[in-house]
Structures are given as C-alpha cells and as structure tokens.
Amino acid sequence: MSANGQNRHARTSRLARKLAVAGTGAAVLALPLIGATTASAATPAAATTATTVTTAATTYPDNLDGWIRESLDIMAQHGIPGSYDGIYRNIMRESSGNPFAINNWDINAINGTPSKGLLQVIDPTFQAYHVPGTSWDPYDPVANITAACNYAADRYGSMDNVFSAY
Questions:
Q1: pLDDT in tens, 82-91
Q2: pLDDT at residue number 57
Q3: Which residues, in sequence order, are bridge partners of residue 116?
Q4: Short-list 144, 3, 154, CA closest to 70
Q5: Distance from CA of residue 73 to its chain's centroid?
C-alpha cells in the first residue's frame, strides 16, 4: 500500500473514533463514506451508541408540563385525541394544577364520590376510562389526565372540545 493510502486510512480511522466517542450518531452516517475496512472495525461501537440513544426511555419532569406531555404520549399510543392546550386549559379550570384537589361540595361529593385530581374525575369514571400502562390511583397526575381525556374523547370527541365542567 502506498504511503498516501496509509495516511488516508489513519485519518479516516481517527475520524471514525472521534465520531463514535462523540456519541452523536454521526458515526453511523459517516461510516459508509470512510471505507469498508474502517467501517467494519467501527460498526460495533457505533451500533452500540446508536442503540443506546434509540432505546433510552423518555423522562418527563415531575411537574404539570411533564405530566401533560407524558399523558399525551400515552394517549397517542392508545389513539386518544387531545392537545396540550386543551388539557392545560381544562386542568387550570378544574384544579388550578393541584393533583390532590378534591371537590367536597358538589352533587358527586354529596353522593359519596367526590371529584379528584387534576381533571376532577370521580372514581367510577376513572375506573371505567382507566388507560392501561397508567396507575390505578386517581390522584396520580398522568393516570388522572389520561383517564379524563379518554372519557372526554368518548363523550365529546376530545378534551379539546370541553369548555366547562364535564
């Protein structure tokens, strides 16, 4: 092999290592351009990096924004319609964002089933519209949002169509 070829090989090997170490996923894209010998040596490291990136679980902040976003992801998996704005608007009206809110004065409370949580769901409705993969605790913010949106979708087409107590 000529000295020129060896220099090119060393340069591309260095590039592949830098890209693989950077973990940007760019190494996977750059490998076909580098050459077969370099690509075969770098592929296992690049594949591990790419797999780690794609299989990492999504984490959500433990706050109203995170609860809504996690609920929206679960809703999407189950074909439940709704938007961030529609959910947020209804949460602000129903509980002001307090996941432990409870209504002890309306007809539901008088009948022994007070409305609970972010979207003020009564226990029978929560149980009937519970979405698999969420908690069975009506005070769990994600479970409460997701069950309420499932109910609203069944009754009104979407939580986006709810503009008053439901």
A1: 999 999 999 9
A2: 84
A3: 102, 121
A4: 144
A5: 4
